[in-house]
Amino acid sequence: MTEDVTGEGRYAASGADVPSSVSGTEPGASPGSGSRADPGSGSRRGPGTRFQGPRVRVERCVSRGLGKVTGYALGPYQTAIVRIGFGAAWLFFLLREWPHRHELYGPDGPWSFGLGKQLIDSNHAFTVLMWASSGSWFELVYLVAMAAAAAMLLGWHTRAATVLFMVGVLSLQNRSVFMGDGGDNVIHLMSLYLILTRCSQVWSLDARRAHRSRSRAETRTEAARTDASAGAHGRGGNAPPHAGGNSAPPHAGGNSAPASAGRSTASGVGDPVAGTGGVVLWAVLGAILVGGTIAGAMTTGWTLFFWALWVANAAWWCVNKAVAVRGGSGLRELRTVCDILANLAHNGVLLIIMVEVCLIYSTAGWYKIQGSRWQDGTAVYYPMNLDYFTPWPELSHLLAGNGLMVFLVTYGTVITQVAFPFTLFNRRVKNVLLAMMIMEHVGIAVLLGLPFFSMAMIAADAVFLPTVFLVWLGRRVTVLRTRVRGRLPGGDVRRQPVAPPSPRTAGSEDPAVPASAPVGWPGDRTG
Q1: CA atoms of 139 and 94, how far apart (whole Å)
Q2: Which label site among 56, 278, 338, 379 has the fewest CB atoms less than 10 Å from its CB?
Q3: Helices and strands, number each (H, E), in the chain
Q4: Closest Cα to residue 504, out of 269, 200, 206, 343?
Q5: What is the pLDDT of residues 446-480, one digit of tens each?
Q6: Residues 513 and 421 placed together within one structural domain of the fold
């Protein structure tokens, strides 16, 4: 027999009076008058009763929406692929321009240190390259930018890595503002957005480390419970009875595990705290921030911004540490509040990224409509005949010589860019246009020789990829990685599968990992 927990059955089971909002009767009326069971009492209902149904449905929808926005970091796969895409784009760009780094951003560039200093003083942009004019300082900043991009790509201490990634992007791009293109502008914006996202919930080293820590904590807890149970059975009937007739030791909550074991899983799921590497990394960043603040190397706005980031992450680490060591309902509630705020920031930034991508395509499409070459269908012809935009001259000339192909590509580009923001409410049409835009950027990378611009745009487009496709992609990577490991020496060792993470588990870097989300990199069976 099931109980109606949302209606009158819940109150009847407890013996309490049924509220009028649940029973459908007017206040002060008897249950039989004006109730839903009386078909002839519709004329005796109040004026607002007929609107009660839609109002309740709206309230429930709003409640469910708020529950999702505050309870979960939405789009874990989408934000992970965005993190990987932009980290790879910036890392490969820096590797590609390694031989020309001094001309692009260094002391040998046409935009001298003095001109850069004047520009930074006027627009108050952020760049650490203005802190010193020596070549060794530039080399250090360039190497740190590459390391931060690699760390963000792998998801290693992602909170700190995203901050360093932003510092590297802003420092290099603001040093020579005339060296970038549209792809650099997108990377510039996304480096600011990714700081506030929980983009390492899946497909990251942080997720793998968090899962391993939880597994070890759960193993220790189970071992402690087993030892306590074995000790109780060993004492047999000589053990004194405890209150309530329970022969188990009187631990908190009726748990037979020792209290010290429960402290390792204070939040209920064995939440690990940031490891030594993360603590050292944030300590170094704090020391650099102190030095920059004392020296006055940053403006007041940037100083407050970086201190706010550092203090917020330090507070998050302290709360997690206190929950893991001491436990307690008060600390767990404080951690829940911090978790809700982090989810709100993540979901808000995720919405901003989506709006940003829509604005990029809509503005580009509407500006193209105003051009005469786009109107007559010949705009694509001209860049494919420019020497510095034709890495494959034969292929470019072959396509440019086909008038029908040029016409279709020109009009198809405009139609896709203008129509994409209007198709977000139709999943199938949106996925078709999304595939067309990704193929368009692949064509730009191959035909026009702009691979990093295309990588940045494809990474931005990935925020709209369906979760089913991303999960399928992760499984395919799993199969591929398993095959590669099997061909390597010693790669045929069978590994034991691990249990999936429990719902609402928390890691040291990104705490809200969905229950259905795989951890670690695709194909990593060890978690």
Answers
A1: 12
A2: 56
A3: 20, 0
A4: 269
A5: 999 999 999 999 999 999 999 999 999 989 988 88
A6: no
